[in-house]
Amino acid sequence: MTISQANQYVEKNKHKVNTMYRLMFHAMPELGWMNDPNGLVFYRGEYHIFYQHHPYDSVWGPMHWGHMVSKDLVRFTYLPIALAPDQEDETGCFSGGAIVDQKDKDQLHVFYTKHFDKNGLIIERQGLATTTDGIHFEKNSKPIIDVDLIAPHGLIQDARDPFPFYENGFYYVILGSKDEHNQGKFLIFRSKDLKTFTFHDALIDPIMKNSMAECPDLVKFEHDDVFLFSRIDFTKQKNRNISEYFIGRFDIENKKYKYEYQGLIDSGHHFYAPQTLKDDQNRVIMIGWMEIWGDPNVTHDLGHEWQGALTFPRELKIVDHQLLQYPIEEIISYRKASRKLEKGIILEKCLDLEIEDTDTHFSIKFSDPKDQENYFEIGYEDKKFYIDGNQLKSNALSRKESRNSYDSIKLRILIDTSSFEIFINDGIEAFTSRVYMESIHFMIVTNQNLKGTVHQLVIGGDESNV
Ligand code: FRU
Predict the structure, then answer these.
(1) Where are the alpha helices (DSSP H) in 107-237?
(2) What is the whole-number distance in angstroms between the Cα of residue 88 and the centre of ligand 1?
(3) Which of 186, 233, 271, 392 could form a disulfide with 266 if both were Cys (CB 3.0 to 4.6 A apart)?
C-alpha cells in the first residue's frame, strides 16, 4: 500500500462523499475513515493536523496518516496523505506525535507505531519519519524503538502511540502499553540524537489496572503538569474507552512523580484519544477524536462514504489547580448574526450559543422541525447539568449527568451540523456528542426566563471544510 495509490484513490473518489452531515468547522477526512488526531504541531507558522485514516473505506482498516493544515484551526486545507503502511514490518501506521527538530526548525519528525498483524502475529514497534517541506516524509529504514527494548517492560503486541517531547538535552518518547496481567503502563524511552533510544522509566498507576494504556500526552504549565491519556477498561463490556487526565508534577528526567488530581476529560458520548500542541502564542490546544469505539458508524451506515471527525480545538488552562477547556477564540470572528434565545426558533447548521448564568432549573429540547418527537435534550436540575439523547431516532444516546454539582450554571454550546460541544461555567466540564438531524428546531421547555444569545457561524470560502 503506497502513498501515491492512496492519494490517487482519494482524488478519484472524493466526489462520492455525501455532504448531508459533513461538518463546517471541524476537521474530517476528505473521504473514508478517520480516528485519532496524530502529530498535532505548530510548524513553520501553521497548524498541522495528522490523523488515523483509512482512505479506501469508511470503516477502520489499514491505517494511514491523513494530513491537513490550518492557519486558524477553523478552516482546514487537505494535504497529501503523509504516511502509508508501505514497509515490510507494517500493516498499519498507528497513532503517534510530532516534534520540531531542536537544532533545525525546518525539520519535523513524526513518531508513529509500526503496527504489524499477519497470520495471527501482532507486533508493535515505533517508527520515525522526517520531513523538511511539511508534506513529504522520509521513513527511517529501521524502527527506533524495537521489540528488544519494549519486551522487558510491556507486551510487544500492545505498545503504541509514541508521544515525543524534548527536555534538557534529551528527546523523550512515552508509549501506551500493558503487561501480561493487564496492568496498563506508560513506558518512557529517551535519546540524545534520535537514533539510539534507551529505556528510561515506566509510569504505573492503580487506575490503569485491567486496562490497556493508549495515547499519552504531557503538558507542562507553569505550576502544574497535566498528563492526558486514554485507556481501554477491560472490566467493562460497553463504553470501555475512556480519556482521563492527571494533574500533578511529572519530573520525567528525575523520575519523580506527584499525582494530585485525576478526572475525566469529557463527560459526553463522543470523545477519545486527545492530543495537545503548544502554538506560537504559547497556548495549549487540545483536539480529540469526536467519536468513540463501539458506537454506530452513522455516516458509514448511511453510505455517505466518510466517517469520523475531530473536536473543535480547545484551549487548556489551569486555574486553581483545575483543568479548564474552552473553544479557541478564533471561532468568534466567524459569528455573523446574533439574536436572542427564543422558544421555537429554527436553528442554522452552525451556531455558537451562549446561555447566561442561571440558578433555576431548565431544559431545552433541540428537535427536528418535521418530527418534534425526534430531539436531543439538555438541562439543569438538582444542581446537575445533563444531556439526554434517548429520543434521537438516528442514534439514541443515553442520559449523562455532570460529575460536579453547580449552584448556578452558564453554558457555551458549539453546534455544527452533526455535533454538539457543550462547556459548563467557562470550561470546568465539557460534553461532546454527535447528533444527527436533518435540521434543528429549538424549544425551551421550562424556565421561560432563560436568557441567551444565538450566534450564527458562517465559515464558507474556498477552504471551507465541506
Ligand atoms: C486509539 C487507537 C490507538 C491506535 C489507533 C489505531 O483510538 O486504538 O491506540 O494507535 O487507535 O487506529
Answers:
(1) 147-150
(2) 20
(3) 271
What is the enclosing helix (H) or strand (E) of 9?
helix 3-13
Q: Is the CB of 38 under 6 A from ligand 1?
A: no
Q: Is 433 in the pocket of ligand 1 (CB under 6 A)?
A: no
85-128: per-residue pLDDT in tens? Answer: 999 999 999 999 999 999 999 999 999 999 999 999 999 999 99
Q: Is the dihedral of CA 271, 272, 277, 282 positive or negative?
A: positive
In angstroms, what is the span from residue 384 Cα to ligand 1's centroid? 33
Nearest CA to ligand 1 atom 6: 94
Strand-pair partners of 38: 50
Element (H, E) at 299: helix 298-301
Whether residue 214 has its Cβ less than 6 Å from ligand 1: yes
Nearest ligand 1 atom to the CA of 36 is: 7
Q: Closest residue (by CA) to atom 9 of ligand 1?
A: 214
Domain boundaries, the chain: 3-327, 330-465
Report which ligand 1 atom has the smallest distance to the Cα of 113: 10
Q: Residue 87 has which C-alpha cell?
A: 514497509
CATH superfamily of this structure's domain 330-465? Exo-inulinase; domain 1 (2.60.120.560)
- Residue count of the chain, please give it: 466
- Number of other CB atoms surrounding residue 184 within 10 Å: 26
Place of cell 434565545: 341
Distance CA 35, CA 49 (A): 12
- How many H-runs (helices) and E-runs (strands) does the chain carry? 3, 34
CATH number for the region 3-327 comes to 2.115.10.20
Residue partners of 88: CB distance under 8 A and separation at least 6: none
Cell numbers for 379, please give them. Answer: 438541562
The rounded Cα 193 to chain-centroid distance in angstroms is 30
- Model confidence at 461, in pLDDT bands (50, 70, 90)? low
Distances, alpha carbon 8 to alpha carbons 3, 56, 57, 292, in Å: 9, 11, 14, 29
* DSSP assignment string, 84-120: ---STT-SEEE---EEE-SS-TT-EEEEEEEEEEETT
Q: Which residues are catalytic?
A: 36
d(CA 148, CA 248): 31
Is 375 a pocket residue for ligand 1 (Cβ < 6 Å)? no
- pTM above the 0.90 mark? yes
Grouping H, G, I as helix, E, B as strand and the rest as coil, residue 45 is coil
Strands 429-434 and 419-424: antiparallel
Kindly state if the Cβ of 273 falls inside 6 Å of ligand 1: yes
pLDDT tens-digit profile of 173-217?
999 999 999 999 999 999 999 999 999 999 999 999 999 999 999
